[in-house]
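Chain A, query sequence.
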Amino acid sequence: MSRNGHPIQRMLTANAQWAEDVLQAEPSFFEESAKGQSPHTLWIGCADSRVPDSIITGSKPGEIFVHRNIANQLKLDDYNALAVLRYAVDYLGVEHVVIVGHTECGGAAACLGAAQNPSLDLNHAIATVPSLPADASLNRWLEPLTRLTASLGLSSTPHQEALPVVVEENVKMQVAELAKTVTITDAWTKGTRKGQKVWIHGWVYDIATGKLKDLGVSQGPPGDKEEPLSEEPAEM
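Chain A, predicted structure.
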């Protein structure tokens, strides 16, 4: 493979061209970016390479703060995610936190496969990925989602029908967990350092259509109503 054909070289070359194009279109863009960031949203999504948050939302650098992991999970003992959440809400002043799942999720599919396995034993640690030991990092990460999937009554449902259910129920569970975090409960009961109100949401991205679906599970400060979304798409 020639050097110019190497994926790493292609990325570096494309970056140089992108930077040049941005400078031509908006000469002060990078200078302004270097002064700081004020994102409006924290995106907690899956690490899947087909779900590039900024691209699918038509957003510019600096508008979305991002945390991604396998199967877009928010765990109350995950200090990485909790640190991102705290920083985003208290120090960047984000107003929205969105859990974003997606169709054809490999993590959700693995959990569905394990949950539909007749030999699944919920009384012991679960090897969602059977080629790895149950205590492997990937299996430990996926186990809560496998347990959720096993509770959904999908044991005899065809995989292609069951997977979208798992994806959506996973997002709903993560939004519920997000609402329990100290950062969010503090924001709702004590206010935030920057004074903004914070709302949490659950979406699913359809890889086959490129469209985002709002699952209608948004939550915000008790007694407050979020400004309704326009039925017409916002102009970019």
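The helical segments are 7-25, 29-33, 53-56, 79-92, 106-115, 137-150, 159-180, 182-189. The radius of gyration is 20 Å.
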